[in-house]
Specification:
CATH architecture: 2-Layer Sandwich
CATH topology: Alpha-D-Glucose-1,6-Bisphosphate, Chain A, domain 4
Helix content: 10-25%
Radius of gyration: 16 Å
Number of helices: 1
Structural class: alpha+beta
Order of helices and strands: EEEEEEH
Strand content: 35-45%
Largest sheet: 6 strands, antiparallel
Distance between the termini: 28 Å
Shape: elongated
Length: 102
């Protein structure tokens, strides 16, 4: 993940857990921040969380030009872009994908 520009925020080898710092992506007029969470058991489970920087209207404090919102769901195209790069790395190492959706 570090090769993809993510820096490790938390690493707990005893829990087989890894969390990255947020990485910024410009997407249209908006700027998203994306963090990856990896949990390793008998399989590797990747999930993500995100933030969206939105311009605020108003002529007030110049430090309040942008507002950051935490998002429950991120655009599918952004998720696909992020996870496809990581998935390709796992594929090159010989890992196999498992379908976990019902």
């Amino acid at each position: 993940m570090e090769n993809e520009g993510y820096s490790i925020k938390e690493y707990a080898p005893e829990d087989k857990f890894l969390n990255t710092e947020y990485k910024k992506f410009s997407w249209g007029k908006n700027e998203y921040q994306f963090s990856i969470i990896a949990h390793v058991t008998d399989r590797i489970t990747l999930s993500g969380r995100g933030k969206l920087d939105l311009p605020t209207s108003g002529m007030g404090n110049p430090n309040d030009i942008m507002e950051t919102q935490i998002l429950e769901k991120l655009p599918y195209r952004l998720q696909r872009t992020v996870f496809s790069k990581i998935e390709a790395k796992f594929d090159s190492l010989g890992f196999q994908k498992s379908k976990h959706w019902p």
